[in-house]
């Protein structure tokens, strides 16, 4: 259990760094000449002299270069190399999130220096598939579609990048959207834990009326993918993008569904029931660990950050994971975060790179390393269906088996679209939230402005914007 807590902490630390870095470094612009597929290469000797962070287990064997920052990745690489005689992984950490993406973009501009296989967040993938910038290989040409059932529906949807029958990466992990609940606070004030957003608002008032001097939750103004998840719960699809038509984007923040979400939180904030402290800051961490927030709606990987920030990661924090509140019975399961292995257009032997991308976490042993040592929430259906994963206990959550809650969310999630300039969109989101909750701009005006801003930016970058 201590090993699991440490792994969750490492994963959460990575997630925080990536969240701050966002998706910097990719090309935002589209080309008027669209759709050129990434090339396939067949040089089996080009990586013979590649320098690796890991120790390659078998000499004289073809190498495939990999960039990745997953916790415990070196252990996964060693397991692959020990069990494969035809290929050996040469791994390096190219940076986390934006740092790696900048390095990848520099290699793209130079025409060399990229790895064969690269870890990319789902939300970062479109920036490397804009117009003629098709720098990720379609893996369906190697039969990857035959393995679709090995992954959740939502993770598979995201590596399709809006296409019908292509797949541009191998899914690895997800971030099911759930609610962290201080059950002891609800018990103390004799308030039921809410399951719907109507009940959530009612519980906020009841807690305050009963003498609770904290907030039912926080709605941070620095949220990025978290806000997308809130919008998706209400049925809003603010981004649409497809690698099949990569010079077109659709932006739809100015919708009744998005307005519903922001109006809801504004009422709770105005009533003094919800805080707006920026998430994952020192003040926020102090607030949530001291009991100032009775709930926190977020991806399940947040457990590790909270545990690692507490005085004792193996002590019961009082938090338990519940399903996130819903608007009604039609509210979809949603997700925040996750990443995959993509094969780059600079891969020396493209098919060998595909094999590594698919098989690095392809065995039960590697997947167990991923979820125990690495703290990953898997996109792999075999692991999700296993008693090993379902019954995993977390000391920080009072030995709760949280995956009984998170697994159905991951299985129910259908996928999301992200823009090829997602970093810019997130920056504009932050400005929008500040304008509403700090400066007093109306929700209607703020949504209209971000819609206009993003569409104008898309047009300036050469996209056709809807």
UniProtKB/TrEMBL annotation:
Keyword entries, A-Z: Signal
Alphabetized PROSITE patterns for the sequence: PROKAR_LIPOPROTEIN (PS51257)
A matching Pfam family: SBP_bac_1
Organism domain of life: Bacteria
Keyword Signal in record: yes
Gene3D superfamilies: Periplasmic binding protein-like II
Signal peptide: 1-21
Protein name, per record: ABC arabinosaccharide transporter Solute-Binding Protein
């Amino acid at each position: 259990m201590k090993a699991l807590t440490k792994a969750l902490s490492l994963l959460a630390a990575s997630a925080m760094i990536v969240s701050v870095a966002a998706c910097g470094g990719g090309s935002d612009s589209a080309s008027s000449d669209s759709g050129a597929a990434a090339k396939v290469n067949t040089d089996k000797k080009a990586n013979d002299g590649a320098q690796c962070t890991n120790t390659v287990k078998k000499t004289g064997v073809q190498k495939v270069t990999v960039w990745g920052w997953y916790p415990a990745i070196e252990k996964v690489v060693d397991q692959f190399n020990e069990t494969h005689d035809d290929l050996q992984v040469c791994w390096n950490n190219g940076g986390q999130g934006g740092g790696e993406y900048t390095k990848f973009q520099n290699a793209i501009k130079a025409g060399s220096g990229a790895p064969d296989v690269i870890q990319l967040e789902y939300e970062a993938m479109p920036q490397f598939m804009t117009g003629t910038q098709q720098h990720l290989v379609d893996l369906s040409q190697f039969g990857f579609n035959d393995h679709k059932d090995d992954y959740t529906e939502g993770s598979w949807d995201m590596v399709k990048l809006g296409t019908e029958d292509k797949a541009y990466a191998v899914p690895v992990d997800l971030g099911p959207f759930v609610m962290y609940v201080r059950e002891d606070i609800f018990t103390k004030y004799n308030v039921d834990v809410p399951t719907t957003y109507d009940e959530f608002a009612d519980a906020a008032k009841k807690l305050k009326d009963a003498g609770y001097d904290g907030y039912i939750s926080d709605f941070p103004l620095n949220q990025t993918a978290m806000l997308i998840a809130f919008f998706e719960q209400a049925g809003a699809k603010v981004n649409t993008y497809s690698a099949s038509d990569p010079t077109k984007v659709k932006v739809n923040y100015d919708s009744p569904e998005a307005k519903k979400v922001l109006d809801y939180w504004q009422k709770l904030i105005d009533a003094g029931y919800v805080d707006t402290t920026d998430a994952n800051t020192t003040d926020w961490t102090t607030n949530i660990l001291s009991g100032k927030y009775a709930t926190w709606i977020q991806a399940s990987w947040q457990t590790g950050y909270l545990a690692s920030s507490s005085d004792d990661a193996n002590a019961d924090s009082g938090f338990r994971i519940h399903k996130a509140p819903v608007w009604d019975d039609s509210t979809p399961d949603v997700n925040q975060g996750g990443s995959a292995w993509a094969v780059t257009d600079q891969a020396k032997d493209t098919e060998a790179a595909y094999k590594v991308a698919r098989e690095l976490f392809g065995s039960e042993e590697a997947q167990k390393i991923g979820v125990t040592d690495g703290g990953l929430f898997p996109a792999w259906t075999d692991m999700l269906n296993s008693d090993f994963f379902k019954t995993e206990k977390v000391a920080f959550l009072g030995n709760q088996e949280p995956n009984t809650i998170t697994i159905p969310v991951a299985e129910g999630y259908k996928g999301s679209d992200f823009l090829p300039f997602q970093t810019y969109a997130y920056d504009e989101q932050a400005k929008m939230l500040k304008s509403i909750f700090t400066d007093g701009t109306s929700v209607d005006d703020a949504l209209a402005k971000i819609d206009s801003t993003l569409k104008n930016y898309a047009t300036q970058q050469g996209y056709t914007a809807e």
